[in-house]
Protein: Aspartokinase
Amino acid sequence: MSLIVQKYGGSSVADAESIKRVAKRIVQTRKAGNEVVVVVSAMGDTTDELMDLAHEVVPLPSGRELDMLLTAGERIAMALLAMSIKSLGVDARSYTGSQAGMITDAQHGSARIVDVTPGRVREALDEGAVAIVAGFQGFNRVTGDITTLGRGGSDTTAVALAAALKADVCEIYTDVDGIFTSDPRQVPSARKIDRITSEEMLELAAAGAKVLYIRAVEYARRHGVTLHVRSSFNNNEGTLVVNPVDGENSVEEPLIAGVAADLSQAKITVAGVPDIPGKAAQIFTIVASSNANIDMIVQNVSAAATGRTDISFTLPKTEGSATIAALEAQRESVGFEMLQYDDQIGKLSLVGAGMRTNAGVSAKLFTALFESGINIEMISTSEIRISVVTRADTINDAVRVVHSAFDLDGDTPAVVHGGTGR
Amino acid sequence: MSLIVQKYGGSSVADAESIKRVAKRIVQTRKAGNEVVVVVSAMGDTTDELMDLAHEVVPLPSGRELDMLLTAGERIAMALLAMSIKSLGVDARSYTGSQAGMITDAQHGSARIVDVTPGRVREALDEGAVAIVAGFQGFNRVTGDITTLGRGGSDTTAVALAAALKADVCEIYTDVDGIFTSDPRQVPSARKIDRITSEEMLELAAAGAKVLYIRAVEYARRHGVTLHVRSSFNNNEGTLVVNPVDGENSVEEPLIAGVAADLSQAKITVAGVPDIPGKAAQIFTIVASSNANIDMIVQNVSAAATGRTDISFTLPKTEGSATIAALEAQRESVGFEMLQYDDQIGKLSLVGAGMRTNAGVSAKLFTALFESGINIEMISTSEIRISVVTRADTINDAVRVVHSAFDLDGDTPAVVHGGTGR
Structure:
């Protein structure tokens, strides 16, 4: 008997019909002799609707109360799913985050899991029932208050439960067939990846692949949880995200796992910075104080004549104005000449565990882009990833060119359904 | 400093604007120097919508899961209300039934309160915050499961908290100005009652007055909680429901408190029952087994020639078919000749603590009805109430006639807003 954790996103439980469809799938899994724990998100756009309601009442809602409000969404979905499963003759019980033992810190809106004590879930399984757990939510032991885990929270709930229950696999159901070599909406020839290491998945997620949240992948890697990303609309095998023992995979792993694009970033250039030690540290201390999530950083070579240099970095567009304001406030003490803000950039990332032992990858990437007339503005690399920044309007071409250059194109086009969960 | 419990029904928090209006009223009460605990129902039709959703998924939802689902409604309302109050500069914290210590038995859908341990609510008050508590919900200590209290549950939550916290008053906010001598929708000349005993209120609620639920009034009487029923749409004084010490009120209390009508009942007549001892007991044992809530019972005098008698009783229309089925199944063992079902009846009740010492009340009532040509089909009395059953289509005339006969008509017509809470 296997223990399977299944996570269904909001688009998989968007209405009564979808809930009944998902219930049938869960019942099949249970009747095949598995123990089943289900983590579910709020139905369709419920979370956005609740958020809108909060903003109708008050512009800046209290974090504690916003969490109390938003957690109503999963509560509705999980209760409906549990009653639907029961109506098919299989016992099912729904549990809130706190009932399922998702203990977090007290950071409302983006709480971190500090412990998982799924005693009631284990008990339900022992009694033959399917346990349905609300994704995205937990509670803090000190304050006794309800918390939410922030973006991608339901994925994280599923992985954390899988780790605590020592599940055989954690299935993440979504509206696409798995992880692709690139976004199928952008690159119709994108191929589904059958198997990918968590390390590669982490880089893909960080590079903008939206199917899995980076936080859930990190958690899975740290706790050795195997993920299976698959579609809730068919029975196809999806993508296995595995945690190979060191060295185990070096022989057969392909050079490149995939190509990701990210259009959510903006670039800030601090121009005319005095080229003296400590200035970069001063700038990024200011940036950090505005809570910006910096991605790439590039410092140009100093023009010897002026004794000044330019420092550029990328960050999410949503954090642009706060960061600009923080830097402007310190213009005199830093001594820079001007700030430039550019939100028309795109970032392309090439990810593959194989590239760490293959020096030719960057050259091939840069050549492919050059031959297509696409200009590279910034470059950053990790051991298994190369990212380049281009103009936003060239990013689609860039992804297709690179996808072909590395022989990633598949034979059958990918099937894509609408909507995204959380 | 007074401790005030305020309960707002669904129609008082139907949308963002209403929530902001209620928040202002709560802030006023707090700033006037009172400690404030607020019990809130789900917004507008939320509960009905959730119930519809459940029935889209499955015809007969599990009780445990239905409670889990429905409690999402109050959760949404209380979080929005708390954030609205906080935005007005007064600290506020929302608590679920279980966080507020509403301990119940495990009867899903109609749980009874077995204990109230409002430690966190008391703590919030001690720290100067307004405590917002979800009405209608509790939890069971043995199963650890969420429960709901059934119809009128939010009133009961408010009264139970008021009792446990030894509140000075429990204010029940609704869409009318208080308790009236009759339903203002039916009798435009109905007068608002300034003060009524809980005993009279209990009889009025049992007789069909819908402003307060009988269960909440019972709880208030048993625990000595003073209720103040008033409108959330204005600042008028409403109706005080008081618990006079024995004898205290006998002098000044008026003869009649009010007239109530109830069109929700049906009448079942078991005809041709053998007139031998034990038959009535047998019939009502059968009726009880179908969980019917019997109201009035009348047994006609036996016709000596036949040795048979007729027994009639009233019960809620919704329970009619189950009770008919239960009786039919036992026709042979009881030995009755036929069953008659009549759902075209109306019940008029005259309530007043003064009538227990005044023999002329029944005579005046029957005379008033007789002079208006309204036929009386059944009569039942308690110490402070007389109820009569008439045809349903004469009930409105009957209420007006009786209201006038007992000089209850006021000078100014009552103001009525739409909608009802729970």
User: Anything to note?
Assistant: Residues 236 and 355 of chain A are 29 Å apart (CA to CA). Residues 414-422 of chain A have pLDDT under 50 and may be disordered. The longest strand of chain A covers residues 265-274.
